[in-house]
Write a structure and sequence with these properties.
The complex is a heterodimer of chains A (about 130) and B (about 180). Chain A is an alpha/beta fold. Chain A is built from three helices and six strands; from the N terminus they run E-E-E-H-E-H-E-H-E. A six-stranded mixed beta sheet of chain A has the order 1-2-3-4-5-6, covered by helices on one side. In chain A, strand 2 and strand 3 form a beta hairpin. The mean pLDDT of chain A is about 95. Chain B is α+β, with helices and mostly antiparallel strands. Chain B has one domain: Heat Shock Protein 90 (2-Layer Sandwich). The longest helix of chain B has 21 residues. Chain B is globular, with a radius of gyration of 16 Å. Classes of the chains: A alpha/beta (about 130), B alpha+beta (about 180). The interface between A and B is medium-sized, with 26 and 32 residues.
Chain lengths: ~130, ~180
């Protein structure tokens, strides 16, 4: 399966999805006006990946900002991962937040309470 | 009394140390520029990164709310106001970063919007969180945005009540303004 690689911009994050490594990464800023358009290829890729996922999937989410329109799309990404986890595959979500960024920690905790996949909250210290 | 936009905008521009003031068409590119300006100025002012992020987040939601929801006013409305007309003033005042957003709305939408903000303002921090999570998990996203999460998010991030005003302008249109304050001191 082809990796999905998207370079980040001022409004959209860097994406690195790699099936053979079982690596799912979203990093940067996610504040597009139309987030459905941006996230559709990510969700489609995960649908395909879910058919034969790697035995261990590592998910790294490291966002500096995201808007509420992205928040629903990020939940869609997590729901796809949750389905993979429910099918007895190992999935770990690492939620990174910058030092003292309580809002971003809280955002991760909001997702953790909705999605039944183990989350690690990781503070990035300079 | 008839609402005078220019006086209103002028007053805002004399209310504290202005970081950003804009009136005109709200476009995606325009939003990019405004966000960059505010980010750079807050950096220069030595505002705590935590506060800077809150301001940035509130501004993103506020501007994108304008972008998605501004009512088209009739063509003969008032040539003074551009297509998709909106306004934003960000200023530093008395230990707060204050963000004021404004646009014309059809009077039919007033009670819906007013009830929504009153509801948000009536909730505790914990209740805001629960409502946010409920909407996040249960409401479908529209092409227009976050399915009603914007105002909730602004309330959560700012930690303050949302202040609003509706000014009579014509029988069909009101000028609606929203004030969000973020304490930095």
């Amino acid at each position: 399966m082809e990796p999905l690689i998207i370079e980040g911009t001022a409004k959209t994050p860097t994406v690195n999805f790699n099936a053979s490594e079982g690596l799912i990464e979203i990093k940067g800023r996610s504040i597009p006006e139309n987030s459905i358009e941006f996230y559709k290829p990510l969700v489609d890729w995960l649908d395909e990946y879910a058919k034969s996922p790697a035995p261990h999937t590592t998910v790294n989410i490291q966002l500096e900002y995201f808007n509420t329109s992205s928040s629903k799309c990020i939940l869609d990404v997590f729901k796809k991962l949750e389905a993979i986890y429910k099918n007895k595959n190992d999935v770990k979500i690492n939620w990174y937040y910058e030092e003292d960024d309580e809002d971003m920690l809280e955002a991760g905790e909001d997702y953790e309470s909705i999605i039944r996949v183990p989350f690690n909250m990781i503070e990035i210290v300079d | 009394m008839h609402f005078n936009f220019d006086e209103y905008y002028n007053d805002l521009n004399n209310d504290g140390e202005v970081i950003l003031a804009y009136q005109g068409t709200i476009t995606a590119d325009g939003i990019n520029g405004m966000l960059e300006t505010v980010e750079a100025k807050l950096d220069g002012m030595g505002i705590d990164p935590k506060i800077k992020k809150k301001v940035y987040n509130v501004l993103v939601e506020g501007l994108q709310n304008l972008y998605h929801h501004i009512d088209e006013v009739p063509e003969d409305f008032n040539p003074r106001f551009a297509h998709k007309f909106g306004m934003v003033v960000v200023r530093k005042k008395e230990g707060n970063i204050k963000i004021t957003l404004g646009n014309f709305i059809n009077v039919k939408k007033k009670s819906y919007l007013k009830d929504k903000i009153d509801k948000i303002n009536s909730l505790s921090e914990e209740e805001l969180k629960d409502m946010y999570k409920f909407i996040l998990n249960h409401q479908k996203l529209s092409v227009k945005g976050g399915g009603g999460l914007g105002l909730l998010d602004m309330a959560r991030k700012s930690g303050n009540k949302l202040e609003y005003s509706f000014y009579d302008y014509t029988p069909d249109f009101n000028f609606y303004s929203l004030d969000v304050s973020i304490n930095y001191a």
